[in-house]
Design brief:
The protein is mainly alpha-helical. It contains 5 helices and 2 strands. The longest helix is centred in the first third of the chain and has 15 residues.
Length: 129
């Protein structure tokens, strides 16, 4: 229970976009018994190797890249997916519990913790040249 409670209290951010009408604030300010229920559900999911399909669904929202740029150009937007809050808690719970065992390859250049896309861009430019 401590892990889930730590995830909720320390890693969830207040005021984030709602995923299916449930916000992080609903969880942050809920009764403490909710942590017990989530622990039971998450442990059952791990025990039975089952994750509900709804955990992988979300709403794609367009975000403006450059507010001073052309707001009518589709290239000035990027999409982000707003996931259900419960699936985000489950993801953070798994990372907290098993993150030390999840290593990426040294050949992976982007989407790594504390590494931007600079090395990948540099490599691509050198290959093209």
């Amino acid at each position: 229970m401590e892990t889930i409670d730590n995830v909720i209290r320390n890693r969830m951010k207040s005021g984030k976009a709602a995923g299916y009408n449930l916000t992080s604030d609903h969880i942050l300010y809920s009764h403490h018994i909710l942590v017990t229920y989530m622990r039971n559900i998450f442990n059952l999911m791990l025990k039975h190797s089952y994750v509900p399909d709804e955990f992988g669904r979300g709403v794609i929202v367009p975000l403006v890249k450059d507010k001073r740029g052309d707001l009518f150009s589709s290239s000035n937007y990027r999409g982000i997916m707003v996931s259900p809050v419960i699936s985000k808690i489950f993801e953070l719970y798994l990372l907290d519990k098993f993150g030390n065992f999840l290593n990426s390859s040294d050949l992976q250049l982007v989407f790594k913790k504390n590494i931007g896309c600079g090395p990948g861009v540099f490599l691509a430019q050198n290959v093209v040249e």
